């Protein structure tokens, strides 16, 4: 017997405008007015900026102002570079590169919604018919489940920061949601057309972050087909169509790059080499990383998803559990087999977990739902209050201890009041109290009531951080000030600069200060920009090819928020 009994009153869907507005409230804060931050965000922007202002070779051989970066795939960088080309004159290069981030995010949310909607409309997912009628219609049931899946997805802690970065990881999670949707469509109606569209998703995912993840997810797709009455010859034909379309999409980059050899390089060899480095035998550190990070990364999706598997355990072969569970199993395997586990590897699990969690909500008891609501209200309201207190303290100096704690992370920073940021944060806070009042006073019976406060509260916290504390975070994580200091110390008619700085630093210095770094093919330069630790008092960090030569120190500096990192600019003595 199915574990679900649900009246039609519980399937009231969110208004389309409300769902769309919620998505924009989620993605826009943190993209507007933010500098490229250190590490992956700044490095990815550097590739996009180099492509947009470089030659055709930069589009085929991704690099950061001359530093080769052919590892993952160029699709996310192409999209950002196209945004700079189209909208850079209007929005500025940084914000224009993030136009693609908004588009990709919304496409991922839309794919997740439709994947859940299609699964929720199936007959095997429908709740039990009530004795006197009043059960929901399949379309209404599917819409409500889809709304719940989107709210759970937006409420996941692991998605918050990564979805606001201009990195391939942000695009990978959306392409995974698109492949999940195409998988649902294929298992609903196996056909050559649906197989080809699934191949399109596989190809786009391959161009985003390599072939290993899409190949494994394609295996998960065909693992789902064992529950279909499909002839073996048709399954082989469809598999061939997926591989052909996916390979054709990937070839749009690899074949021209191999034939034209940009900067005398062959991207295929470097790309394949990077892909093979993503696989290894599972080890204890990877297992420990998965469980230690996953507990909060997948919250609140994983408890509901686990409950869905338990609640539907007696229903053999229901596709609304089989399809997302297959994707989750492959995602877990990929994470455990990665030699250097990182949070970006966990993103592929978020879309299928959100779908499973939506079906898990169907059987959660009212007492558990109320407990989740009260926890969300208390914890998130407390977090918002703390943010407001620290913001007030850093501006006024009272309370003194809070002011010291807020400013000690950004030494040398002078906070100023921004009325625009203040009113946006105030409006978001008032909206939160309206949402809480609606939830507590009306006690709605709709299915998604259990997660609306979790996602709404997380959006509130993010808006507060990206308005009240955005200048602080920019000051702490941006290299703009250091770049301008270096530019002021460059000799007149300076030639190229050799350097050992990391990708994020190189991208920031090239963008903010237009530093003439040595190109991909290298060359002899008269300037050397050295990155090392402030604890070193000699030139031990100078690259071996530069030791023994005479260098004159022109400038030394660092970011005020970083107590160890140091940059030094040298000129060749001769």
UniProtKB/TrEMBL annotation:
Its main location: membrane. The chain crosses the membrane at residues 6-28, 98-120, 241-261, 289-310, 317-334, 346-364, 371-391, 417-438, 450-470. One of its GO terms (molecular function) is pentosyltransferase activity. This is Glycosyltransferase. One of its GO terms (biological process) is lipopolysaccharide biosynthetic process. It comes from the Bacteria. Keywords: Cell membrane, Glycosyltransferase, Membrane, Transferase, Transmembrane, Transmembrane helix. Coiled coil: none annotated. It is found in: Cell membrane. It is a multi-pass membrane protein. GO terms for cellular component: plasma membrane.
């Amino acid at each position: 017997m199915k574990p679900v009994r649900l009246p039609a009153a519980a399937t009231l869907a969110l208004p389309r405008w409300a769902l769309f507005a919620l998505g924009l409230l989620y993605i826009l804060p943190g993209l507007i007015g933010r500098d490229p931050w250190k590490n992956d965000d700044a490095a990815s922007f550097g590739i996009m900026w180099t492509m947009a202002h470089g030659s055709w070779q930069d589009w085929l051989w991704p690099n950061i102002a001359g530093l080769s970066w052919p590892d993952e795939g160029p699709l996310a960088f192409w999209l950002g570079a196209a945004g700079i080309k189209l909208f850079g004159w209007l929005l500025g290069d940084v914000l224009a590169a993030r136009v693609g981030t908004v588009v990709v995010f919304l496409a991922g949310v839309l794919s997740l919604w439709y994947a859940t909607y299609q699964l929720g409309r199936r007959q095997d997912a429908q709740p039990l018919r009530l004795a006197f009628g009043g059960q929901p219609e399949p379309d209404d049931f599917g819409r409500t489940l889809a709304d719940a899946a989107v709210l759970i997805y937006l409420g996941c802690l692991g998605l918050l920061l990564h979805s606001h970065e201009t990195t391939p990881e942000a695009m990978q999670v959306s392409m995974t949601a698109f492949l999940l949707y195409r998988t649902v469509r294929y298992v609903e109606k196996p056909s050559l057309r649906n197989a080809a569209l699934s191949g399109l998703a596989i190809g786009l995912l391959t161009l985003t972050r390599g072939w290993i993840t899409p190949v494994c997810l394609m295996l998960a797709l065909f693992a789902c087909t064992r529950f279909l009455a499909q002839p073996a010859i048709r399954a082989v034909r469809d598999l061939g169509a997926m591989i052909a379309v996916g390979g054709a999409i990937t070839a749009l980059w690899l074949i021209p790059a191999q034939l034209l050899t940009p900067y005398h390089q062959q991207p295929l060899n470097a790309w394949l080499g990077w892909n093979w480095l993503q696989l290894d035998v599972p080890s204890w550190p990877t297992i420990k990383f998965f469980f230690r990070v996953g507990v909060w990364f997948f919250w609140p999706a994983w408890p509901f998803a686990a409950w869905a598997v338990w609640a539907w355990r007696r229903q053999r072969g229901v596709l609304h559990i089989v399809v997302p569970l297959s994707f989750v199993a492959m995602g877990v395997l990929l994470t455990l087999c990665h030699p250097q586990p990182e949070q970006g590897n966990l993103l592929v699990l978020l879309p299928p977990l959100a779908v499973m969690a939506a079906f898990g909500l169907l059987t959660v008891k009212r007492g558990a739902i109320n407990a989740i609501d009260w926890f969300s209200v208390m914890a998130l309201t407390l977090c918002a209050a703390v943010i407001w207190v620290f913001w007030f303290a850093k501006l006024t100096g009272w309370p003194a201890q809070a002011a010291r704690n807020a400013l000690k992370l950004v030494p040398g920073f002078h906070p100023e009041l921004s009325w625009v940021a203040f009113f946006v944060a105030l409006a978001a806070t008032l909206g939160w109290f309206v949402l809480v009042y609606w939830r507590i006073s009306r006690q709605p019976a709709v299915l998604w009531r259990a997660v609306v406060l979790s996602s709404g509260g997380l959006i509130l916290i993010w808006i507060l951080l990206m308005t009240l504390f955005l200048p602080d975070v920019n000051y702490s994580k941006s290299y703009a000030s250091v770049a301008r200091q270096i530019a002021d110390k460059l000799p007149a008619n300076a030639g190229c600069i050799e350097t050992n700085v990391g990708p994020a630093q190189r991208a920031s210095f090239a963008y903010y200060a237009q530093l003439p770094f040595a190109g991909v093919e290298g060359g002899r330069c008269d300037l050397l920009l050295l990155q090392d630790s402030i604890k070193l008092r000699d030139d031990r960090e100078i690259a071996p090819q530069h030791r023994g030569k005479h260098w004159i120190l022109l400038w030394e500096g660092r970011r005020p928020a970083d107590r160890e990192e140091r940059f030094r600019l040298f000129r060749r003595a001769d």
